[in-house]
Design brief:
The protein contains four helices and eight strands; from the N terminus they run E-H-E-E-H-E-E-H-E-E-H-E. By secondary structure, it is of the alpha+beta class. The protein has two domains: about 1-75, 2-Layer Sandwich (Alpha-Beta Plaits), CATH 3.30.70; about 90-165, Alpha-Beta Plaits. Helix 3 (about 100-110) packs antiparallel against helix 4 (about 145-160).
Length: about 170
């Protein structure tokens, strides 16, 4: 079975997920994992599917036929997953401002720590009337990483950019 990661973007409307699922199913594919969202009126998704090797080209062709609804780009994945080993999760909460994700990702990259999953959003602050930024991040150290040093630098950064950092 081939693993394909599909990225899908298009104007949000009812039936988009069904259209994708119908095509995957028509090629004996299995919808394994997905992250789907409406963002500012745009549907965006990342979907991992497995499909028989001899059906990959036909699946790609049928996905291209969705161009009027969605721009779907298939990316070839593999069974080899780098997700083994130590993982760490942390959350960030603070006043929203430009650059928070860039500064956090820069700190992690300098310490050879890879982001496996990042989910973020902005919400209205219940009391102050401002906007809060919140994120949940799952990371893992790569070879040669110093996770303790990365956590220390993240904690220093949290103080500088005035956000709460909670390491789980």
């Amino acid at each position: 079975m081939a693993k394909l990661v599909l990225t899908a973007v298009g104007e949000d409307r009812a039936g988009l997920v069904r259209s994708l699922a119908d095509i995957v199913s028509a090629h004996d594919g299995n919808w394994e994992t997905s992250e789907l969202a409406e963002l500012a009126g745009v549907f965006a998704g990342v979907i991992l599917v497995s499909v028989p090797d001899d059906r990959v080209d036909a699946l790609r062709a049928d996905l291209a036929g969705l161009a009027e609804l969605l721009q779907v780009t298939p990316h070839v994945g593999s069974d080899a997953s780098p997700h083994g080993g130590v993982q760490m999760e942390f959350s960030v909460l603070g006043n929203d401002r430009p650059g928070i994700v860039r500064e956090i990702s820069d700190t992690l990259a300098r310490h050879r720590v890879s982001i496996d999953h990042l989910a973020s959003r902005t919400v209205e602050a219940p009391m102050s009337g401002g906007t809060l930024f919140e994120a949940k991040v799952r990371v893992r150290p790569l070879d040669g990483a110093d996770l303790d040093a990365a956590v220390a630098d993240l904690e220093r950064l949290a103080g500088e950019i005035q956000v709460d950092l909670t390491v789980a």
